[in-house]
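User: Need the bound-state model for flavin-adenine dinucleotide:
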Amino acid sequence: MSRPSVTKTDLVVVGGGIIGLAIAREFAQQFAGMRVMVLEKESSIVTHQSLRNSGVVHSGIFTKPGSFSARAASLGGSLLVEYCRQRDLPVERVGKVIVAAHQNELPMLDLLYKYGMENGAPGLEMIGAEHLSEIEPHVQGIKAIYMPLTATVDYARIARAFADDLIAVGGEIVTHVRVDSLTTSTPNIVLITSMDHTQAQWQLEIQADYVITAGGLHEDLLVHMTNPQRQQDLLIVPFRTDYYVLRPEKRDLLRGLVYAVPDSDLSPHGIHFVPHVDGRLLLAPAAALAFAREGYGRKDVNPREMRETAGFPGFQRWALRHGVAAAQDIYRDYNKTAHLKQFQRYLPELTADDLQAGSSGVRALALLRNGTYADDLLIQRSGTVIHVENVPSSAATASLFIASQVAELAERELLLTRL
Ligand SMILES: Cc1cc2nc3c(=O)[nH]c(=O)nc-3n(C[C@H](O)[C@H](O)[C@H](O)COP(=O)(O)OP(=O)(O)OC[C@H]3O[C@@H](n4cnc5c(N)ncnc54)[C@H](O)[C@@H]3O)c2cc1C
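Assistant: Bound-state model below.
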């Protein structure tokens, strides 16, 4: 590699996903004359979680009342839908049912209903089997929560619209640039980056007054650059969802979103069926532990990342509690018949021929030292570097709200002044 060339800016945002782009847009629009540069390691923005997701605007029903996630989903969802309307981006109000297939799921369904009411989820209704069959004639269940206003959107298009807004006010997006180190000991923050473009590799040194990291599946590595001691506290563990697409001739089997009652961790990472805004119907099984952070294929394995995960004390504690269930999810992930059986609990008419292989998405779950997930927003400031360490599982829904929260923090603690 050649000697690094040097460039300077006011704010660097690391990560060209929906969160990094929403933050960069907010700062460039809100703070007077600030030069904002987004750095993205891939050849284009919006390539990981922000591209490969279910496209649901969450309403906060899966989150504990009073948590940031609850506020983020309800306020963030409204902001997002309003933004889509202004930018003429698709929003489909398809409605959602959360279905209990068995008596033993009723206590959790009741708890979700209580959370939904306390979180102000609009139009919420508890319904019986008969009403369920009017809403979704092919779905089987004994009781359900009905949310008629839940919408679906296209998060990749929204994220690209954020990028357009950023560029319109003079912001810059540089792709093919990976941040390898962050040094905060000089008057400026120094980022050493490597560029890997058309076989050639070179280094670029970037000096910035402020840095915000939103690195998704690699955010912990960015955190460790400024806080090496956090290596013991935080590790991103990847969970993959392998979507199926319903054969187009069977598209009429479902009208809106259908979710299974989640297990005890209250996460919306379980079975769900999604009418995508592009017309396809996606069937998502429960997410399974992946063997590589960007492992989108079932055979993708990264031995170094697996060793790091296995050596993390928080993962060992997590595995003691959830290892058996995780192993079952992994087994099912390699077995279409097992997935089909799970889907048939809700859609008995489904056959193996109806399931076509779809794309996959890998979710970044931040595991803490005590073996639990950090599901709420976790923002850590280290001098003039702000790390968005963890985003809630409905972070795409909450992207505009998260960006406004980071800007408020910068205003309060870094004394930045708005326009
Ligand atoms: C299967 C699945 C379904 C989901 N469904 C929904 C849903 O229905 N509704 C919802 O609201 N949310 C959903 N989510 C969650 C949502 O998609 C994510 O929370 C959100 O996209 C996170 O955005 P991000 O910008 O933090 O991460 P990402 O989109 O992953 O972006 C992070 C970026 O940082 C870059 N990067 C990392 N390290 C570096 C580095 N060192 N240098 C330069 N660049 C770097 C990466 O290349 C990447 O492009 C889902 C997620 C998944 C995986």
